[in-house]
Structures are given as structure tokens and as C-alpha cells.
Design goal:
The protein is mainly α. It has one domain (3-318). It is built from 12 helices and 2 strands, in the order ααααββαααααααα. It has a two-stranded antiparallel ribbon with strand order 1-2. Strand 1 and strand 2 form a beta hairpin. Helix 1 crosses helix 7, helix 4 crosses helix 5 (147-168) and helix 5 (147-168) crosses helix 10 (256-275). The longest helix is centred in the N-terminal third of the chain and has 28 residues, at 69-96. The protein starts with a helix and ends with a helix.
């Protein structure tokens, strides 16, 4: 069962041995926000775009081990497109030597277009169709959502989850660790649908292995950052798998950290525009805790514990206890 995970893990570790020094040689370096925590200043110059370390093994292993090659190619294609938006953002930052990449409007348009395209595919031609699982039904009860409601919902959902994963990436190992826990939760849920042999299980198995391998280079103190390239891909995997399992709504619970991170930015920006004052010391909220004296490892541990609790609550809501 775990063969895809072990292969992806090994490939990710070996690829890191190539990509980390390559990014250093190419001077693909992180530009730290000038208004960020002072403890992050020493990170300026650490190579970025490390998401390639886990994206490449995920692409290869998922296609090799998937039974439905066409479906796997569509899903992987969507993940790659989201990652390419992140890569464009990373490259602009590298070239400009600035922490600002694509504009908010540019990124939003690109993400919405990709999300809409995948949503149309999923609803009209994908195996999940318009069916979503009903809470407390033990994954057996479903309802069908009209396409004219479901396609816009999935588009906004995919935009939100990729953008939120991107916002969560700001502390060494944070986005990777939280995503792995969500992968494990979704994998355990997939067992109730197809005895663990479906292609979503395969994608999750290889994602767990590949991201674990990346953590060897990204855990504090990070030797490389995933960049928007990696965070967009993580969000895409979580979004796509939850859609195909018929439980996109559960990510608002097991992915509670994504909710908190995104809301902290919305609240901070909105409140500042109204009052010229800030609610948090800095947003996203993981920076608020850092400025409050938390070490990076403490932020990661606490946020992972919150995610684990979200997973337990999600199990109960799905009726799997």
C-alpha cells in the first residue's frame, strides 16, 4: 500500500540534493518582507522555488500508480497549472529582487480561470460529478447540487484553498506540516469510498511521501523555501482531492488553519482601511504570534495540533466514529 509513498519520499529526498544547490547557483533567492519579523531577516538569500522538490515526484508517481491515466493527467495538469501561477510569482520576485510578485488582480484572474476550468471538468465529466457527501452519513449519503450552483462554488473554493495555502507558507515547515496532516485525513476518509485503491488515494499517498521528503530541507532552519510554486500546488492537491471525494466543505473544518490565516489577512486589511489601525501585530496570523514571542517551531507545533483537532471534529461530522 505504501509503495507509492516510499518511492515519492525517496525521489523527493534525492531531488532535493540536486535542486537545493541548483537554486543557490542560479541565485533564485528569497526576498524577505521589509515589514516582516526581524527574526526573518537572516532568511534573505535562502533559495526558493523548492516546491519543485515535491511537485516533480508527485507528477511522476501519481501518473505511474494511477489506474485511470486520463483522469490522473487531468488532475495533475490542474495542479501543475496552479503551481505555474506560483512559479510566475516567484520568478517576478527573484528578477525584481522584491517581495512583491504578481499583482493581486493578476494572481486572482489566473487562479479563477484555472479553478473555473477544472470545476467545469469535474462537474460535467469528472467521476464525482455534482454529488457531495451529507454530514453524519458515514460517507454513504449524498445529494446532487445543480451545476449552475456547484461550478461557481467549486471555482471560489479552489481559488480560496490555493490562496490560503499560499498565505500559510511563511514559517519554516508550516505549510508542509499542515498539508501533510490534511493529506493523511483525506487518505483515511478515502478508505471508506473505495477500499483505498482509488486514484485519489494514490495521489494522497505520493503527496505524503514527496512532501515529507521536502520537509527534510524545509524544516527549521530551512535550507530552501517552497515558494508560491509549492504552496499553490499543495492547495490545489487538497482542493482537487476533496472535490473528487465529494467533501469539499470538510476542508473548512480540517483546514481550519487555512481559514484562520486567510481571515486574519482580510480582517487586518479591512480594519486598517476603516480605522488606520491594526488588529494583529502582523498578518497572516502566524507572524502575529512570532511578534508576540513565539518561536517558529512553536507556531508549527500549535498549528499542527489545531489541524489535528480539526481532523477529529471532521471525522465526527462525517459520521465515521
Amino acid at each position: 500500500m505504501w509503495q507509492p509513498t516510499l518511492i515519492a519520499l525517496t525521489a523527493s529526498i534525492l531531488l532535493g540534493l540536486i535542486i537545493v544547490p541548483l537554486m543557490k547557483r542560479l541565485k533564485f533567492r528569497q526576498t524577505v518582507r521589509e515589514d516582516g519579523p526581524r527574526t526573518h531577516l537572516h532568511k534573505s538569500g535562502i533559495p526558493t522555488m523548492g516546491g519543485l522538490i515535491f511537485i516533480i515526484p508527485i507528477i511522476g508517481a501519481a501518473i505511474i500508480f494511477s489506474s485511470d491515466k486520463l483522469s490522473a493527467l487531468v488532475n495533475i495538469g490542474a495542479i501543475v497549472l496552479f503551481a505555474l501561477v506560483g512559479m510566475a510569482d516567484d520568478l517576478i520576485k527573484i528578477i525584481k529582487k522584491d517581495s512583491d510578485g504578481l499583482s493581486v488582480l493578476q494572481k486572482t484572474i489566473l487562479l479563477i480561470v484555472i479553478a473555473a476550468g477544472y470545476s467545469v471538468y469535474s462537474v460535467l465529466w469528472g467521476p464525482a460529478g455534482t454529488e457531495i457527501v451529507i454530514p453524519f452519513s458515514q460517507m454513504t449519503g449524498t445529494i446532487s447540487i445543480p451545476p449552475y450552483f456547484y461550478i461557481p462554488f467549486l471555482t471560489i473554493f479552489l481559488y480560496w484553498v490555493t490562496n490560503s495555502a499560499n498565505l500559510t507558507d511563511g514559517v519554516d515547515g508550516l505549510a508542509s506540516s499542515v498539508s501533510i496532516l490534511i493529506f493523511v485525513f483525506l487518505l483515511s476518509v478515502s478508505r471508506f469510498l473505495d477500499a483505498g485503491s482509488n486514484d485519489m488515494s494514490v495521489l494522497l499517498l505520493v503527496s505524503i511521501g514527496a512532501v515529507l521528503g521536502f520537509l527534510m530541507y524545509n524544516a527549521n532552519p530551512a535550507r530552501i523555501f517552497m515558494g508560491d510554486t509549492g504552496s499553490m500546488a499543495l492547495g490545489a492537491i487538497i482542493g482537487i482531492v476533496s472535490i473528487q471525494l465529494g467533501i469539499p466543505w470538510i476542508i473548512f473544518i480540517v483546514g481550519i488553519i487555512f481559514i484562520i490565516e486567510a481571515l486574519s489577512v482580510v480582517i487586518q486589511v479591512g480594519y486598517y482601511k476603516l480605522t488606520q489601525r491594526r488588529v494583529f501585530k502582523m498578518a497572516p496570523i502566524h507572524h502575529h504570534f512570532e511578534l508576540s514571542g513565539w518561536k517558529e517551531n512553536k507556531v508549527v507545533v500549535v498549528f499542527c495540533l489545531v489541524t489535528a483537532v480539526g481532523g477529529v471534529v471532521s471525522y465526527w461530522i462525517l459520521g465515521l466514529f
